[in-house]
Amino acid sequence: MVLVEPEIILNAPQQYLLAGIGDTLAKWYEAVVLAPQPETLPLTVRLGINNAQAIRDVLLNSSEQALSDQQNQQLTQSFCDVVDAIIAGGGMVGGLGDRFTRVAAAHAVHNGLTVLPQTEKFLHGTKVAYGILVQSALLGQDDVLAQLTGAYQRFHLPTTLAELEVDINNQAEIDKVIAHTLRPVESIHYLPVTLTPDTLRAAFKKVESFKA
């Protein structure tokens, strides 16, 4: 059993709520990669995927208000909804969806970024949030990229490598990130696209210059 006291989270540093938003958003965007034909899967998995979609909608629609409410120390419905989406909703998605609602490219990009020491100061969910943008670029989902870039700018989640203190023009550093992200064990290989260092580099560059 998990007991959640919203006032504790209300008084915590906002970076933790923001990272939770980013990591939980990935539930949906990675699930649709892992389960492209959900109608063929067991009901429990479909329930998990449906929950991931519902959580996505709550986070995209309510996070800006929730973050503002936290800043103003106001315990509101929007704030509680976002907290519940992250903790209760995220747990339900993982429990019901099993391997179909776990990790894909967004988490692999996070793992790649961890090879650079300057990214250590950024929380897991913050880097995963950026990873969703790279995954969207790899899949050619410009509509998703536009929607999330606009949302991230309102929430103050990173939309560029520069915001994670990584220079897109530093080839040595980008090569390290790419090599780690594309390791055979990484979940990026669940994507239904051909992956090479060049395609991943192009995705990073697309995200870096993308305008919502």
* Number of domain modules: 2
Poorly predicted segments: none
CATH homologous superfamily assignment of the largest domain: Dehydroquinate synthase-like - alpha domain
Run of helices and strands: HHHHHHHHH
The CATH first-level class of the largest domain comes to Mainly Alpha
User: Separation of termini?
Assistant: 41 Å
**Which structural class matches the secondary elements?**
mainly alpha
Total strands:
0
Secondary-structure arrangement, i.e. CATH architecture of the largest domain: Up-down Bundle
Mean pLDDT across residues? 96
Cα shape: globular
Total of DSSP H or I helical runs spanning 4+ residues: 9
CATH names the topology of the largest domain as Dehydroquinate synthase-like, alpha domain
GO molecular function: glycerol dehydrogenase (NAD+) activity; metal ion binding
Protein name: Iron-containing alcohol dehydrogenase
EC number: 1.1.1.6
Family: Belongs to the iron-containing alcohol dehydrogenase family.
Structural write-up:
It is a single chain. The chain has 212 residues and is mainly alpha-helical. The chain has 2 domains: 96 residues, Dehydroquinate synthase-like - alpha domain (Dehydroquinate synthase-like, alpha domain); 105 residues, Dehydroquinate synthase-like, alpha domain, CATH 1.20.1090. 65% of the residues lie in helices and 0% in strands. It contains 9 helices and no strands. The chain is globular. The N and C termini lie far apart (41 Å). The mean pLDDT is 96. It comes from Escherichia coli. It is an enzyme of class 1 (oxidoreductase). Belongs to the iron-containing alcohol dehydrogenase family.
